[in-house]
Amino acid sequence: MGDAFIRHIELLGYEKRFFPSQHYVYMFLVKWNDLSEKVVYRRFTEIYEFHKALKEMFPIESGDINIENRIIPHLPAPKWFDGQRSTENRQGTLAEYCYSLVNLPHKISRCLHVVNFFKVRHDDMNPVTDSQIKKPEVFLLPKDSKKNPTDITGPIVLQTYRAIADYEKSSTSEMSLKAGDMVDVVEKSENGWWFCQMKNKRGWVPAAYLEPMDGPDESEEPEPNYAGEAYTVQKSYTAVEEDELTLKEGDTIEVIHKLLDGWWVIRKDETTGYYPSMYLQKAGEVNTSVKSEQRNRSAPPRRSTIRNVKSIHKQGRKQISQETYRRNSKKYIQNRRNLRGNSQNKANVIIEKNEPEDNKPKAQPAVPPRPSKDLILNRCTESTRRKIL
């Protein structure tokens, strides 16, 4: 395999830390060419020092010789005192800087200076914290921040979940769990993989292995939508369990229930079953490199396949049987067909009624009745009365 290089850098937000003194660090999700994903933390002062060194290494591309040749993005210098407001306001600029940096020519974007700066450090895996002082506050960047750079969230208390069983990671980007472990969820992906942190560890965890502390999490899932949403299969999958479906790439299906563990209930014709959501794409959406990379990962485990589950809740999640999905789907499809049939019948009836109406001759105006002799004598003129005498 060739030298390591960075495929993508995404700014997740920043942390307000209180040890050894109050300061701010930015959180970056770094995606490497071996498909691994790492979260690193950097202060803005060291990001700016990295930027200055990069400009010195490439004076032509930084515009030092001719400003018209500059392709290295600009980055404002840190202020004398960087508080929370400046840290927050700088996120939009920093996100654009990272995007531009990765898309520079390979001699810059893949040079050792860039690669080494974003490599995982010991402090990234073992951040210095002191629970006796205060837990760091996390501020996440909204997903639509490119449209609204100033629309930054307030302090977020990350949701804490508990592992219901042991999980052994299968790649370096994942995190192993033991039953009872408490993790903070940084990002919930609808493909069933959640990015979590636990003390000095971070990584992707199957959502199926996690439960909230306050109760079963079916409240976070939407209700089934038997009308269905049109999706296209982007990757083939062969069913392993009886309630799963086998589909080929290019098949068109309808999603009727989006579940948190990344296994959605779908409908193909009148057949329903589970299918990995990460292998599906909404009809009409454009395929992206990020989605393509996600499909190279294995599908997350299903809740129903987890053994030795140890939940702290007396009542478990409510599960809808596959028979209920099928019965309601057939009922919805039949109603839809009936509505279509009725509309067609009504159209036919209207046509049949209109056709004979078109063939009929137009009605003639009615002739009023002749007035009686008494009426003429009482109301008409003298000359008219003479005619009837």
From TrEMBL:
Q: Name one GO cellular component term.
A: NADPH oxidase complex
**SMART domains this protein is in?**
PX, SH3
Assigned keywords, A-Z: Cytoplasm, Phosphoprotein, Repeat, SH3 domain
Cell compartment(s), UniProt:
Cytoplasm
Q: Where is this region: Disordered?
A: 338-375
Is Repeat a UniProt keyword of this protein?
Answer: yes
Q: Which Pfam families match?
A: NCF1_PBR_AIR (PF16621), p47_phox_C (PF08944), PX (PF00787), SH3_1 (PF00018)
BP terms from Gene Ontology: respiratory burst; superoxide anion generation
Name the residue ranges with Basic and acidic residues bias.
352-361
Q: What is this protein called?
A: NCF1 factor
State the organism of origin: Daphoenositta chrysoptera
